[in-house]
From TrEMBL:
Belongs to the LysR transcriptional regulatory family. PROSITE patterns: HTH_LYSR (PS50931). Keywords: DNA-binding, Transcription, Transcription regulation. Residues 1-58 form the HTH lysR-type domain. InterPro entries: LysR_HTH_N, LysR_subst-bd, WH-like_DNA-bd_sf, WH_DNA-bd_sf. It comes from the Bacteria. PANTHER family: HCA OPERON TRANSCRIPTIONAL ACTIVATOR HCAR (PTHR30346:SF0), TRANSCRIPTIONAL DUAL REGULATOR HCAR-RELATED (PTHR30346). It holds the Pfam family HTH_1. The keyword Phosphoprotein does not apply. The keyword Protease does not apply. This is LysR family transcriptional regulator.
């Protein structure tokens, strides 16, 4: 049974005239008449009573009209959903994010995406960068949000935002009295930092940056989460070099100071080359993420890049 036959039947039922119904559906009258006869042959019972003045529905035709309208409405809804899905307006999206982005970046992106795409169900999963890469390869998440580009050839990435490193110092530290610092001033300080195996690119690039000032940080304590590291700073265990947006985390006992010449760190969106680039929901999310952060990343000689 063809949808065009149902459309012709509904038009005839509502116009009660073959000529007017044919004009309404943009066919000649004979084509409409043939369409109705084909429909009656397929249903197996007469649907209309033909008179010289008007067309009336048989009792069977009246019942069939109810179903025809419902079928056409469902078909229209299906077409609409398919078109909206192609535009990324409906569907599901699983997003991985590193914990630090909960303090800056993630709230802005998710809030804006929900405003623009309320019919997309968003599942947020807190994962390390390594866990996100594995989840992307395994199809467990659609897109990841992390720091610095990835080097997996099966994954693609886009820089969304760039932030400089800053110094997190104990509130009573002598350097906290200064408005700005240079990296050399931290030469003799104990540091707290991530374990290298969790943030290898970040770790190595920071070490290369400090080496330009003639020293290697003395890491006296490691922790895997930014709030924990900042708590260690507050306790006076050492200093830390977080990204600027972590200064939003106003932890008692911690002050943040900008560092002259500090490298910029990319916050990136990462997705699988296959098949995610063709996923319109992922494309919509990437567009919103870039716009929500309100900054177009530009090349900078100080940017932390992947290891050569």
């Amino acid at each position: 049974m063809e949808l065009r036959h149902l459309r012709h039947f509904v038009a005839l039922a509502e116009e009660e005239h073959f000529g007017r119904a044919a004009e309404r559906v943009f066919v000649v009258q004979q084509a409409l008449s043939n369409s109705i006869r084909n429909l009656e042959d397929e249903v197996g019972v007469p649907l209309v009573l033909r008179t010289t003045r008007r067309v009336q529905l048989t009792p069977a035709g009246q019942e069939f009209l109810i179903g025809a309208r419902e079928t056409l409405a469902l078909a229209s809804q299906s077409v609409d959903r398919a078109r909206r899905a192609a535009r990324g307006e409906v569907g599901r999206l699983s997003v991985g994010f590193v914990s630090g982005l909960a303090f800056g970046g993630l709230p802005e992106i998710v809030r804006r995406f929900r405003e623009l795409y309320p019919n997309v169900s968003v599942d947020l999963r807190e994962l390390t960068a390594q866990e996100q890469e594995a989840a992307l390869r395994g199809g467990m998440i659609d897109v990841g949000l992390m720091l610095l580009p990835v080097r997996d050839p099966g994954l693609d990435s886009r820089a969304l935002w760039r932030q400089p490193l800053v110094a997190a110092l104990p509130a009573g530290h002598e350097l906290a009295r200064r408005r700005r610092l240079t990296i050399g001033l931290l030469r003799d300080e104990p540091f707290v930092f991530f374990p290298r195996h969790l943030r290898a690119t970040y770790f190595d690039q920071v070490m290369r940056w400090t080496s330009t000032a003639g020293f290697t940080p003395n890491v006296v304590q490691e922790a895997i989460e930014v709030p924990t590291l900042l708590s260690l700073v507050a306790a006076g265990v050492g200093v830390f070099l977080p990204i600027q947006f972590f200064s939003r985390l106003a932890l008692p006992g911690v002050v943040y100071r900008p560092i002259d010449g500090a490298p910029l760190v990319d916050i990136v969106a990462v997705w699988s080359r296959e098949p995610a680039p063709a996923n319109p929901v992922v494309k919509a999310f990437l567009t919103v993420a870039r716009e929500a952060l309100g900054e177009q990343p530009q090349a900078s000689p100080g940017t932390l890049a992947p290891d050569p």
